[in-house]
Amino acid sequence: MPEGEEDGYSLEGFNLPHVTIEVPASQIIPIAQWQQEEMILAKLRQLSGARLLQLQDYLDFLLQKQEFEHQSRFKSPT
Q: What is the DSSP track for 10-69?
């Protein structure tokens, strides 16, 4: 990667001479994770707008709960 940028990988195709794609390491995910995310997205696409709003509220709740639990672990006892 160019100076000052995140390390990563260079991808070159056999059928595309002189074409190189640089990919930052943070963009690389395991195939199993990618497949799981694709399955979740496929299910999300099937939900109605009302169900998507309910799901968004529930996800916000879970994230708040996770953040609270994370903060609780690092607080010193008083």
A: EEE-SSSTT-EEEEEGGG---HHHHHHHHHHHHHHTTS-HHHHHHHHHHHHHHHHHHHHH
Q: Report d(CA 10, CA 54) in Å as an integer.
A: 41
CA distances to 1, 17, 26, 50, 61 from 13, rounded to whole Å, are: 18, 7, 21, 44, 44
Q: Which position has the higher pLDDT, 29 or 77? A: 29
20-64, pLDDT tens digit by residue? 888 888 888 889 999 999 999 999 999 999 999 999 999 999 999
Gap between the Cα atoms of 38 and 44, Å rounded:
10
